[in-house]
Amino acid sequence: MNNWRRSSYRNISAGWIGVFDSGLGGLTVLKALQAQLPHESFLYFGDTAHLPYGERSAAEIITFVRQILAWMQQSGVKLGVMACNTSSALALEQVRREFDFPIIGLILPAAQVAVKKGKRIGIMATSATVNSQSYPQALQEQKPTIQVCQVACPEFVPLIEQNRCQDPYLRQVAQAYLEPLIEFGLDTLIYGCTHYPHIADVITPLLPPQVRQIDPAQAVAQAAIQELELLGLRQYRRERGTAKFAVSGNPEQFAHLASRWLGYYPYVEKVDLTAIHLSHVSMTVPPTPAS
């Protein structure tokens, strides 16, 4: 990853690991990272003013990602983790060329795990991720014979962000989304959005019992470990690391909802992304992905 910049990257192990998503979904990635890298400190950003990303254009998402990464760069991150499948699909390669710290995404690590688990891979993801074809491409690059079926699930993120995870309507929606995947005969399901593991207890009973489920968070944590060790940036101090939280929307609302999954009520800062300067970023316009 990012081989071209390793020689110039500063060897500072004490910096933050920046993790970001459109909202609560990336907390699944944060928790996996904290479990496997207990001595690292994390800076989490939820772009709640702009969620859901799944129905946004590629140009909008790339703009949001640039602003978030510029803020993280100003905050002193040593590694960026794009804890959002939509931005990983549409913005990762673009912003890797624009920032001088390593950035990892979700799709390739998840694909590498999935092809070892099954032959008929089902993917539940946002509309933007599905339209990008990033998962089928990544999976078939790993194993050309793999069979893939994708389903866009646009209602999931709003329901999760509204704290409606126990709403009977969510089960009805999940059942409808899973129907074509079950007809396809999936043996492995990738949660193609970091919000979706929050409702695994709703999805699991609706799946055939033999279906394996893949949460990309675990694969990304392993990828982060490898990148940190390769760059000499892993923190080995004895004390546990800390975590800071920021959002672009309502910090109180995020803190209230996040406490359910974090197990504590976090202090959350509000950040105005429009005030972030992007003068150092090469603002090349990406091609519009085929729909």
Describe this entry's structure for a reader.
The structure is a single chain. The protein folds into 2 domains: 11-105 and 218-275, Rossmann fold; 107-215, Rossmann fold. The chain is 41% helix and 16% strand. It has 12 helices and 10 strands. It has helices at residues 27-36, 58-75, 85-90, 92-96, 107-117, 127-132, 134-142, 156-161, 168-184, 200-203, 216-231, 251-262; strands spanning 16-21, 42-46, 77-82, 103-104, 120-125, 147-152, 188-192, 212-214, 243-247, 268-270. The strands form 2 sheets. Strands 4-3-1-2-9-10 form a 6-stranded parallel beta sheet, with helices on both faces. Strands 6-5-7-8 form a 4-stranded parallel beta sheet, sandwiched between helices. Strand 7 (188-192), helix 10 and strand 8 (212-214) form a beta-alpha-beta unit. The two termini are 28 Å apart.
Report the order of strands and helices.
Answer: EHEHEHHEHEHHEHHEHEHEHE
Oligomeric organization of the protein chains: single chain
Report low-confidence residues grouped into runs of 5 or more.
1-11, 282-291
The overall pLDDT, averaged over residues, is 90
| CA-atom Rg in angstroms | 18 Å
